[in-house]
Specification:
five-stranded mixed sheet, about 35% helix, alpha/beta, 11 helices, D-Maltodextrin-Binding Protein, domain 2, binds the ligand NCc1[nH]cc(CCC(=O)O)c1CC(=O)O, 13 strands, single chain, 3 domains, Double Stranded RNA Binding Domain
Length: about 300
């Protein structure tokens, strides 16, 4: 019997989504009669220790994953479960994304106390978000909004809606749904109004690239459509050298679970103040090619200059 150690951040969301993923892995291992058992190992990351500063100011990619990847490479854990959108484009050598489980809702969600949608919010409404991507797109859609910084775990952010007297906050629908807090969502934001972050709603289950036993287990949990959509989005992210410090979004879907199904994607790069929002779309059966075409079209439209400005 091999004991598989599963590393995860300690936030309520990370623990919940890791627990849910682990339950499925255990069931799949049982069904296949694999001689495995599992143990959860909570790990504190740099991102968790600096929740009091604006993440976009801290800089550095992979704030939430680095320590966990080190534990994988050091053999202290065998599997790591991350939110895909926290994953930098490049993995350390020796590590692999073993699978992408079925994706949760990729959209952003609006939470407020009056059930307002983006259109109904009052003029000058104060909106809480610390995401440059959300701020830029909301400001473009509603230049009258006043965007206020909002940091912390989901429960902290929900509390701040009231304690800071905000008119609304914007969160990933996926996090709220995984926590069972769907009832707090007052409106889903159409990706046309606010394109989600690359990988939003998806998980990345990471392991050592040499650990065949774990790779075989993880393959059982892979969702082909989600994995191919995320591959297109991450190719786009890699080519634009994005991270959470820049206003970049992308959303891809695969037409079916077939390994050659058409993948369609829209990508977005914005000026931080929303004064300019560039978008491009492409589709095809090679996810990397789709991601590359969208990135190249946006670079042709001047995405480079917007990103350089946002990074200053
Ligand atoms: N930025 C932090 C983060 N990373 C992953 C999620 C949850 C949603 C997901 O898995 O995509 C969140 C919270 C949020 O953006 O509201």
């Amino acid at each position: 019997m091999r004991r598989i150690k599963v590393g995860t951040r300690q936030s309520a969301l990370a623990m919940t989504q890791s627990g849910q993923t682990l339950d499925t892995l255990k069931r799949l291992a049982d069904e296949a009669k694999l001689p495995l058992d599992f143990e959860v190992v909570p790990i504190v990351t740099r991102g968790d220790r600096i929740l009091d500063v604006t993440l976009s100011k801290v800089g550095g990619k992979g704030l939430f994953v680095k320590e966990i990847e080190e534990a994988l490479l050091g053999g202290e854990i065998d599997i790591a479960i991350h939110s895909m959108k926290d994953m930098p484009f490049e993995l350390p050598s020796g590590l692999a994304i073993g699978c992408v489980p079925p994706r949760e809702d990729p959209r952003d969600a609006l939470v407020n106390l009056t059930s307002s949608t983006l259109s109904d919010l009052p003029p000058g409404a104060r909106i809480g978000t610390s995401s440059l991507r959300r701020a830029a797109q909301l400001q473009s859609r509603r230049p009258d909004f006043r965007i206020e910084s909002l940091r912390g775990n989901i429960d902290t952010r929900l509390r701040k809606l009231e304690s800071e007297g905000l008119d609304a906050i914007v969160l990933a629908a996926a996090g709220l749904k995984r926590m069972g807090w769907n009832d707090r969502i007052t409106a889903f934001i159409d990706p046309e109004d606010c394109l989600p972050a690359v990988g939003q709603g998806a998980l990345a289950v990471e392991c050592r690239a040499s650990d065949q036993e774990v790779l075989d287990l993880l393959a059982r949990l892979n969702d082909t459509a989600a994995a191919r959509a995320v591959a297109a989005e991450r190719t786009f992210l890699g080519l634009l050298n994005g991270g959470c410090q820049v206003p970049i979004g992308a959303y891809a879907t695969a037409a079916s679970a077939a390994p050659d199904a058409v993948v369609s994607m829209t990508g977005m790069v914005a000026a931080a103040d929303g004064s300019s929002v560039l978008k491009a779309s492409a589709s095809g059966s090679d996810p990397a090619e789709v991601g590359r075409r969208v990135a190249e079209e946006l670079l042709g439209k001047g995405a480079d200059a917007l990103l350089a400005e946002a990074r200053e």
